[in-house]
Amino acid sequence: xxxxxxxxxxxxxxxxxxxxxxxxxxxxxxxxxxxxxxxxxxxxxxxxxxxxxxxxxxxxxxxxxxxxxxxxxxxxxxxxxxxxxxxxxxxxxxxxxxxxxxxxxxxxxxxxxxxxxxxxxxxxxxxxxxxxxxxxxxxxxxxxxxxxxxxxxxxxxxxxxxxxxxxxxxxxxxxxxxxxxxxxxxxxxxxxxxxxxxxxxxxxxxxxxxxxxxxxxxxxxxxxxxxxxxxxxxxxxxxxxxxxxxxxxxxxxxxxxxxxxxxxxxxxxxxxxxxxxxxxxxxxxxxxxxxxxxxxxxxxxxxxxxxxxxxxxxxxxxxxxxxxxxxxxxxxxxxxxxxxxxxxxxxxxxxxxxxxxxxxxxxxxxxxxxxxxxxxxxxxxxxxxxxxxxxxxxxxxxxxxxxxxxxxxxxxxxxxxxxxxxxxxxxxxxxxxxxxxxxxxxxxxxxxxxxxxxxxxxxxxxxxxxxxxxxxxxxxxxxxxxxxxxxxxxxxxxxxxxxxxxxxxxxxxxxxxxxxxxxxxxxxxxxxxxxxxxxxxxxxxxxxxxxxxxxxxxxxxxxxxxxxxxxxxxxxxxxxxxxxxxxxxxxxxxxxxxxxxxxxxxxxxxxxxxxxxxxxxxxxxxxxxxxxxxxxxxxxxxxxxxxxxxxxxxxxxxxxxxxxxxxxxxxxxxxxxxxxxxxxxxxxxxxxxxxxxxxxxxxxxxxxxxxxxxxxxxxxxxxxxxxxxxxxxxxxxxxxxxxxxxxxxxxxxxxxxxxxxxxxxxxx
Length: 764
Description:
By secondary structure, this protein is of the alpha+beta class.
């Protein structure tokens, strides 16, 4: 479909991304297949009216003959769309702009009267139906019309009934509303044997419809796609804002860190051991890279009349190149020259840096994010829903390094302050103290979300067969009969042993001892390996998530682990959001963070945790005092602006960008580092560099130039440009700097991520 000019504009990457609401409101499509019901007034209304709705609709539930009779009137889906016959049936109360169906509404007068007055059902494609899904029944995969959304409220939810929407798998809960984008591919099925599943399904106008906008808060909607071939930039339909960005202050702050001073050379205070974080050569060079990028940005955006010697930029590039060489192949002999040159640059520029005010930068608004409330509600009442239907309070309490009585007291305080999500692990050796605090808090078990980890089997320190015994001890220590999430603590074991471990994890789900499975400290490769063997897929990922390391300790370049997890229906929870571990930079004292905290009148910790929440990432801050626990829980009475979110997102590029490449490539270059890092080689007249780390799609054959390759590698860029320039039908050239290969194309409407130092050049 994306080879067609019209659909080439869509953001789809696979079949589960296809949706037709994107055609009408490009910004809202970024929300995904499941919407937050708290922003939908109709959802709140129907949940409040659930008792009366259920009482009336039970009349149809209790009379199968009447239900079947009414379902055959106005039916459009019975037959080939569902299987077997009678497995899925719907009583239509109203379809499209038609009248509310008289016979069904005679039986359900209050339901019809309530819905018929709602402005959300005033447009085409709106309607309502009572749907019965029987054990063994299924509604086959299909796409719904646009623009519209669907609201489901279960009148009777059976444990075997499920629905998938896009890449999300959901289960209904009696009395609770689900809001879905029905223009994604979706289906329903019932694998249970207990009884029928009854759901009131309401199809309502899309919130981005002009007639609906007054009913909702701020939404990123965008303009409808006007015509085939009309290019849409990432920020074309979004506003921008200007913020002060303290690059100079950040460089001076980072260079003054005490742990960095310990690493002026490799010594006892800075040993060549990075296993446990803290001062070591790798962490020191990561910090120097952050300093160099802040220097680059300060020079690029300065309004000062003082001239900076161009050789300074060359020297900065040499430092960053030396850093990359060391990280690629650590050699103690390389370390001292890099640190010495970096220190000399800072010493020379310190007077100039002290005179620099923050740069005023304009930030494009990011794509729509998961709505997070800012109404002051209790921290335990806002939840993210895992893709298997389990509700997870978005704000939790972490217990790493909490021990003994201190652990008991802090967990008890957290529960008394309204937190309902507790995270621990086998390795923390504090589950007994947590279990005692849970007991003494008197919070009902069903109100809690308890997450813990299997450490010894995950790391190969115990055989997979011991897992059931280990989890039995954890359940006993935590004083609970089940866990809400049980996860592998790290990607340790592999191959057949990983399969054995995961089969035993799945068995815990089958036994009812675990509600959902997850993993921690997994990268994309480990996730893909696990995904290929898992019968019960993990729905939860707990990884590092801080402004410098957004999802992994070593960030991937082509795709973020956040995006991978989201595309596979996994909810992510971030740890170490405010800690320096495992490197030296301390987020709580970074001038970039403090600038935003001051503007919001909040603490740096609150800003950082709110930033994660607005990314749809759960947070589990740890604290050892009631004051800090209270501070870290007060995240739902303010919000960060789009510009502030973009500025914090951009700190990963200051951490990761090298002398010749803006990284990570999946983060937007909000600070203009690509221009500051480009060190172009020779260029043939008539070409302009379009992008890096991307290549043109090679199908169909017609996109290739007459001579599309020089054959083999080892070519220089000038040779490749000359070959393209000699062909009238060559409009684009992809040169791979690391291998010397090059490919030539007539057109390049679609690109794919590429390695080997790919540079895409457009012929002028």
